[in-house]
Amino acid sequence: MGTVSTARELKAPETRESVARTIQVWGLSRTEEERVIEWMRQSRIEALSELQAATDLLSHYLKRDRIPVVVRRPIKALDGDSLADLLAHGDTHAMLAACREMFRFENVHA
Question: How many domains, the chain?
């Protein structure tokens, strides 16, 4: 099942679009895609909003071809989990918080 056909299984058009965009932007594998789709079928509106916000942040600050690498990179502050790991576990709150922390440029010193 591909991104478009799998995303069609989700009910609301805006949900399908958001999930399809995330799958594409994050460069998820078929297995990762299937996990996300299954998780999305069971998730809350808040979780979908957090996923969309994280994807928006990544798209805004990173070149599109770098996003798949960044979302799979282990993050020390998350005990070695990556953003993709958090997404696979359905922890969109921690995922969004980690994305926001990545782009808190006021903490960067010259």
Answer: 1
pLDDT tens column, 33-57? 888 878 777 777 788 889 999 999 9
Range of the domain at 85: 3-107
pTM of the predicted structure, to 2 decimals: 0.75
List the structure tokens of 80. 């070695």
**How far is it, in rounded angstroms, from Cα 94 to Cα 99?**
9
How far is it, in rounded angstroms, from Cα 59 to Cα 107?
A: 21
**Amino acid sitting at position 60:** H
How long, in residues, is the chain? Answer: 110
The pLDDT, as a whole number, for residue 56 is 96
